[in-house]
Amino acid sequence: MAEIITDLKEISNPSAGDDAKKIVVSGIRSTGNLHLGNYYGALSKFLRMQDDFDCRFFIADLHALTTNPDPNQLHASVKNILAEYLAAGLDPDKATLYVQSDVPEIAEMYLLLNMHVGIGELMRTASFKDKARKALGLTGDGEEIEKEIIGNQSSQARVNAGLLTYPTLMAVDILIHKADFVPVGKDQEQHLELTRRFARRFNSFYGVDYFGEPVNFNFGGEAVKVPGLDGSGKMGKSEGNCIYLLDDEKTLRKKVMRAVTDEGPKEPNQKPSQPVENLFTLMELVSEPSTVEHFRNAYADMSIRYGDMKKQLAEDILKVTTPIRERILDIRDNDEYLAKVVKQGAERARAAASETLRDVREIMGIRGIR
Length: 370
Description:
Layout: E1 4-5, E2 23-29, H1 36-49, E3 54-60, H2 61-64, H3 71-88, E4 96-99, H4 104-114, H5 119-123, H6 126-136, H7 144-151, H8 161-164, H9 166-175, H10 189-206, E5 216-217, H11 249-257, H12 274-286, H13 289-300, H14 306-332, H15 335-364
Parallel strand pairs: 1-5, 2-3, 3-4
Helix pairs in contact: 3-14, 4-9, 4-15, 9-10, 11-14, 12-14
């Protein structure tokens, strides 16, 4: 399990000048728009970090290619997410904001690092198995799933190599910046541990002490898991259970009012079912504590009306998302500003990445004839 730093006090003086700032790296895949889960799970943490750390936040369009998106849709998603980053409060003068594919050094180092990564360890990652099962429509589990994945390749349904080597690309995203901290949720902790393993392996193989081992940092406590509206799991684009930061008032209210619940408590102080607990979890994120307490008490004494709870939840979510939505609409069509932001971000990111790649090539023996 990757080490997790939870308190700023554990980090030695991050604000003692730019040279002393610890490096934070994180990114979000460019698939669709950002939702409430992205905001509370990632963006809200980014905002807290950008003043005290050397933050490098990217839009992961190369990672998005594993699902073979429509080219026009991919381009639009990159632009939308950049606008959403900025609208949420990320400041390009404080943090480096860039598009992953604008840093070609990442792709080259991805190839080089793959030479030290085993197919078996990649196939055993939980995320690969889950995504492969979905891609191929498989239901198996355990060790047999690897045989099923290999045996079910066809032109209509196949698992591409990019999906398999996703952890390598993620490791490069991190190591190319020599990141100290990588804020990740539970579903990405295994990938971060692989990054640490790959760093150790590289150092050991070449007899160097070049890469450090980045750790997770989530500002204390458990990583936030924002539930979806469908009664199970977490909020996710592919699950269709999202509240998007860009949703207008009518759409958002309709989504919340349609959220899955149950028939109501059958006895006092009954434990809420998972769908109802999901609504309470969302309310704890966006509502005043007194509001949460009111509905918790109403559930406990069996007087709760889910319709009233949903109306209040929608109202409180709108207080969070409406100002962001207005800024998104204002920024999204300002192509000149967006182009300036990514150009500046790419220049900063490439300055660090090119230095690391140069060192890695030298260490691996890829040197020019002198």
